[in-house]
Design brief:
Layout: E1 9-10, H1 11-17, H2 23-31, E2 35-37, E3 40-41, E4 48-49, E5 55-57, E6 60-61, E7 70-75, E8 104-105, E9 114-120, H3 123-130, E10 138-145, H4 150-158, E11 161-162, E12 165-166, E13 171-177, E14 181-188, H5 195-202, E15 207-215, E16 218-219, E17 228-230, H6 233-240
Parallel strand pairs: 9-15
Antiparallel strand pairs: 1-4, 2-3, 2-5, 5-6, 7-9, 7-17, 8-9, 10-14, 10-15, 11-12, 13-14, 15-16
Helix pairs in contact: 1-2
Amino acid sequence: MDKKRTDDERLQKFLAKAGIASRRKAEELIVEGRVKVNGQVVDQLGAKVKPTDRVMVDGVQVRYEAQHVYILLYKPSGVVTTVTDPQGRKTVLDFIDAKGLRIYPVGRLDYETSGLLLLTNDGDFAHRMMHPRHVIAKQYEAVVEGKVSEETISLLQRGVTLEDGRTAPAKVSLLGTDGLTSRLLITIHQGRNRQVRRMVDAVGHPCLTLVRTKYGTLTLRGLRPGEWRYLTERELESLNR
């Protein structure tokens, strides 16, 4: 049964709450002209919908999901963080039995990177997790080329200049080195594309492997690559705080 809507609300928020996509992606769907309200294309982000309106995306009527789900996946490397892939590569959804619910990733990990990834059908939750004002720490273990010096670690901690601007201060520590490679523990609060890989490359230590080991208070404990579980109520409350 659909959840009742008692007030007018912005179209992109309605689409996010209905589990179609994150709010940012919902805005893209609107601008692209893929959304109709009562048979008319609506491509303005300020548009609102009433509880009685009939909303369709790509010709399919939008309904609220019966329940929201929140999933933690240990993403393997060599997997794309998308719902579908035109090149036929394995996606993160190939690992999850969503029981017919339309879920999608919260943010992304690049193709080569493994580790902790959230998926949901709750667009408001996804929007909060990815919004810049909600500072959520993301921890990575990186194996990089060469022996990383204390001076380089200090540079990474202060921030490095990339093509899209200077990175914010990060927590960086050396976990070990054999002289040929080094293992770093890096915690950032930003979410730029391939940020950690670009940071270590910028200081002369290209990344060999990268694993996201922690997201906020969440960890990979008990999971192997390709395995997943639902978030507990306590974990969800912690993230929402």
